[in-house]
Give the backbone structure.
Amino acid sequence: MKQGIVFTGVPSMEELVSSPGFPSKNRLRKGAVAVIECVQEIPCDPCELACPFGAIKVGKPITNLPVLFEDKCRGCGLCIPPCPGLAVFLVDTTFSKDKALVEFPYEYLPLPRVGSEVDAVDREGNVVTKAKVLKVKNPKKYDHTPVVSIAIPKKLAQKVRGIVRKQRA
Amino acid sequence: MLSAEVAVIGAGPAGLSAAIEAAKAGAEVLLIDENAKPGGQLFKQIHKFFGSKAHHAGIRGMDIGNRLLQETKESGVKVWLNSIVWGLFEDKILGVANQEGSKSIQAKKIILASGASENAISFPGWTLPGVIGAGAAQTMINIHRVLPGERVLMVGSGNVGLIVSYQLLQAGAEVVAVVEAAQKIGGYGVHASKIRRAGVSILISHTVKEVKGKDQVEAAIVAGVDKNWNPIPHTEKTFQVDTVCIAAGLRPLAELAWIAGCEFVYLSELGGFVPVHNENMESTVSGIYVAGDIAGVEEASTAMEEGRLAGISVAMEMGYLGKEKAEEIREAVGERLKSLRIGPFGEERQKTKQRILEAWQRR
């Protein structure tokens, strides 16, 4: 099967690594950083306005892919909820000795409970590990796009991008 | 016979924007819609929109709808709801039917913003209850808060198919798969990624072959297709589903423009027959304008901009706006429209829109 976003709906590692919003391995080692998984030139730029530190630039035309200036990124995660594509994540590989933190937008109810154990999924929706819910942020200014933080094994930091949602009874 | 300076037909994103611009400039505007509520399809768009700040990017469609309704009120637009425009005659006379009866209205200018309707596709079992339009499913979950089914197969991977799949998951349904007959996903990758993370598979080069069930949908049979979209033998897969959603594109709802004698051009990229219009959105019948999906199926953000163009042009023609001022606003709107029609998803629409202008110039 052909790889790539237009064939599978999932950006391939190659597409991600060659996109300008994807942080380098070196930057990832240093601590929390935004991971912008936006690989298609669509007319959209709210991420640029969302960053208080000027670490994201789309510019003109607005179909430019967002560029992450990784040294300016402080890992605050404010760029996660305004992305209409839900394509921005936060990864902190320095969370603990063996765990990484991954933050992602989560627009499903019920929200996971802080402290609970959940199934974490990769970009294809496959369950890859158990995870602990660290935080659920849902202030008014996020406009109904809650942001969930989970702790996962460090080696899965660039794989895990969400959790299994609760099914209806 | 009643009279109106400007009659706008359809209170969706294009019609609301057109009415607001014309009324703000000072025109007396009557906005007519057949539904009980204005807003068209905006209020079921519960997701955040793309674009830039000038296009309300990052704001949910329903909230943009509320803003437009507020502006409509403030600008003094007269709104008739539950009113069907059933005819458009010479001298810009509209036939309108509502609970008070049928009446004729003569308008100086008319803006047609009647939107689009969903395409159906036929296959054995397509008339079974449970085979519904993706737009219908979206109306049910996001407006009426009723789940059309528990297990859904989505047919079509354009933005409508992908977004409605996501919203069905949010509403609590299970989407078993999205099938796409083309060799690649039609809509934005980010919309596809959302549902992939949620465990939904997207099958490209696949189509729905048959839907089975006694009194309602019970199963859908899906098959792989070759490059010519012919089913490949022995590739059938059966999904136990109670709902099949069809997201096979939209076509302009242009009956009133046909009745009025507007010239048309066939452009499959924009959904089919589209009234020929100039860059001010005026059709080939003087004084009748078109905006939004009727002028070529695109999206809500482009519809709003086209509505503004039409509203401003009408206000200028009627003397409510100076030519210079009108040109200035039209230029700004034109720039915003252009920025929505670039990139791999927008370029083709820009080129096709250009062909409408060429058709206008050839006359």
Remarks:
- The helical segments of chain A are 5-8, 13-17, 25-30, 46-50.
- Strands of chain A lie at 33-36, 56-57, 67-68, 88-92, 99-105, 117-121, 127-137, 147-153, 162-163.
